Amino acid sequence: MSDSDFANIRGWLVEQIRAGYSANSLLLSMQDRGWGRELALGLIAQAMGDRAKADAARDGSADGALPPANAVPLSSSSNDANDAVSLPPAAATMPTPIVGDATSVDVGDRKVSVLMAMKTPQIVLFGDFLSKQECDRLVETARPRMQRSMTADRHTGVDQEDTVRTSRGMFFERGENPVVRAIEARIARLLTWPVENGENLQVLHYRPGDRYEPHHDYFDPNSLGASALLSRGGQRVATFLMYLREPERGGDTTFPELGLRFAPKRGCALYFAYDRPHPSTKTLHGGAPVIAGEKWVATKWLREGAFV
Ligand code: PD2
Ligand code: ZN
After folding, report:
1. What is the phi/psi pair of residue 245, to 5°?
2. 193 in Cβ contact with 302 (< 8 Å)
């Protein structure tokens, strides 16, 4: 890390704090990007001090009245008021999964069961979304194309090898083959959301030890790379995660803030929605390490507009 890297991260932190992001959400973002906890906490505390000094200078208040930077509380509730005033706007419309009161829904080519549904955040677990043949077909078509997973750097938007996601992955083209086409159309009907608003279907493969650290799927609108990511159909508003093969042990999809975990089960699909790019959506989620066996999933991220 050079001095200018540190200056960049400090500048970014001050901007985030000004935008109302809490210390806790910044800590999670930095840990997502591989920063160590202690170093991240130190930089956040320092940036909070810088912000307070800048505000005090503008307001003409005395420097001596400022709390020392390292006294800034860093609990998740410390900046709730800040978070509340600076919420980014909510999406105008959202996917509407057909859930109803029924235990199963007819999506045209298949009957899908509703195994669990939660309102806030909206999380729905569907059973029998994919047949065994469809799961196998996706895995076998994806297998020769798997590569180490990459993630867009939160600050620069540049794709880089992921330190928080150790799985391997690949993307299908939209409508690339009949199975992909059928699944994409089924998702669109189930969620009442246009096929065009879906990103390319991604397949991920986890072996023992592989994991996906807790993260949010929406793009941080304040990151340097945001405008490039957002120019391709706007924000992500929901995630549709399909389990293709379950490991023998481990590999749960977890929502740490909700104390919720889903054990992968072949053919099931997990839907969750976030109407604004903000931690208040409580959609922090991760993939717990696989302990034994292999886990295969396919993810369809849904955008506000047509994905291009
Ligand atoms: O594979 C998972 O369980 C998982 C966990 C968190 C997948 C994703 N996120 C994702 O594809 O966004
Ligand atoms: Zn995710």
Report:
1. -145, 135
2. yes
| Domains of the chain, start order | 1-86 (no CATH), 104-303 (2.60.120.620)
Query: Atom 7, ligand 1: which residue's CA is nearest?
Result: 287
Give per-10-residue mean pLDDT for the chain (308 aa): 59 60 61 62 66 47 36 37 68 91 88 95 97 98 90 65 81 97 98 98 96 95 89 97 98 98 98 96 97 98 97
β-partners of residue 206 are 295
Contacts 24+ apart (CB under 8 A), 258-265: 258/121, 258/282, 260/123, 261/288, 262/125, 264/295, 264/297, 265/127
The reported pLDDT for the residue numbered 51 is 55
Kindly report the protein residue whose alpha carbon is nearest to atom 6 of ligand 1.
286
Whether the CB of 239 sits within 6 Å of ligand 1: yes
Phi, then psi, of 89 in degrees rounded to 5: -65, 150
Sign of CA dihedral 19, 221, 37, 83: positive
Helix, strand and coil in the chain, % to nearest 5: 30, 25, 45
Q: Whose CA is nearest to atom 10 of ligand 1?
A: 299
